[in-house]
Design brief:
alpha+beta, three-stranded antiparallel sheet, 4 helices, rod-shaped
């Protein structure tokens, strides 16, 4: 008697279970797609922020190097306030900083004693490439000015 009831209970569970077979797929697939997209945004979004910071760092360094490439004529001038950057030397100094970092196409603008450098850093995606986003980039612009003397008064 107990064995017959057990078999009947198992048979009814099997029949009820057959009706629900595959229903979990309708929940798992969208949830997994959402989790992969969220992971991609976190990982590759962090890489995009890092690319922007790297671009800012490189543009700062390159602009300073360019502003330090002063014109020899300006160095011999009686007025130290007339410092100017030597355009060809400034561009060469900018490229000496950026070329080892893999940046070959910076925008360099030289106006008197100021050098402005715009740099774009490209990063390959790690997860978002699944949906066709293969590259993210960060761009930064920095300006450096050649200074003479001190900028703060006082004795010391």
């Amino acid at each position: 008697m107990i064995a017959r009831r057990s078999r009947a209970l198992i048979a009814s569970i099997r029949q009820d279970g057959d009706r629900d077979r595959g229903a979990v797929v309708f929940w798992v697939v969208p949830i997994m797609a959402g989790l992969i997209a969220l992971t991609g945004l976190v990982v590759d979004g962090g890489n995009a922020l890092a690319a922007r910071e790297r671009a800012a760092d490189l543009s700062d360094q390159a602009a300073r190097a360019g502003a330090d490439a002063l014109s020899p004529l300006a160095l011999h001038d009686a007025d130290p306030g007339d410092l100017t950057a030597d355009p060809s030397a400034a561009r060469a100094a900018v490229l000496r900083v950026l070329t080892p970092a893999g940046i070959t196409d910076p925008t360099v603008t030289i106006q008197g004693d100021s050098v402005t450098v715009t740099v774009t850093v490209h990063e390959d995606t790690q997860i978002l490439s699944i949906i066709g986003v293969n590259e993210l980039s960060g761009t930064a612009t920095s300006t450096a000015t050649a200074l003479h003397g001190t900028t703060a008064g006082g004795t010391g």
